[in-house]
Amino acid sequence: MKCITTSAAILALASQQVSAHYIFQSVTVAGTKNAPYTYVRKNTNGNSPVTDLTSPDLTCNAGAETGSNTSTVSLAAGSTLAFSSDTAVYHNGPVSVYMARAPTTAATFDGSGNVWFKILDIGPNFPGGTWDLKQTYDIPIPACIPSGEYLIRIQSMAIHNPYPALPQFYVSCAQVAITGGGSKDLGPKVAIPGAFKATDPGYTANIYTNFTSYTIPGPEVASC
User: What residues does 179 pair with on adjacent strands?
Assistant: First the structure.
């Protein structure tokens, strides 16, 4: 009986952990929220996170190397795009948003190389170290970037399990065609994977002990 009870408890805990996961699957453009995976590449690992800092899955998630089955939405430079998950972000940690310009089309772009620049960081609020956990994040698009097709990558890096447990990356990529853009080449540009190191203070932070400051991993946010 004790063994059965223990097994049941383990299964219940596993179920709770899975249900606590989430996936970014839709975008709102010009006030219209689109159906899941219309303009967001569909991954193949459900709502499971990526934990390997060297994996190509860190770019746009597992099974989302290209977007041949994903449409590309027109988006004005200087406007706002909203990225939504299937359920509210549950795990504590920063949310960051990156963009990368496709050499041809967003649908055929795998996001490899030093092509990603960061446009948004959402970190903890101090004092208290509280996090902005919600289902939809508004993302201002820089007005100065050139017109063309891009990937917009959202990343929730969950650090609720203290190091040496591995942080969990919940990532998705949307395909957009920027219109009315400028002429500034924003940077710094980084490769993903490659931008995050296991020694980054924001990667190894313990948010439960003496948590009075925090540095979000990755490059600085680009500015027009």
Answer: 76
Count CB-CB contacts under 10 A for residue 131.
22
Sequential DSSP letters for 146-206: PSEEEEEEEEEEE--S-TTSPPEEEEEEEEEEEES---------B-TTTS--TT-HHHH--
pTM of the entire predicted model: 0.91
CA angle 42, 46, 48 (to 5 degrees): 120
pLDDT digits (tens, 9 = 90+) for 24-52: 999 999 999 999 999 999 999 989 999 99
Q: CA 192 → CA 14, 60, 110, 130, distances in Å?
A: 30, 9, 11, 27
Q: Round to whole Å and give the CA distance between 129 and 218.
A: 20
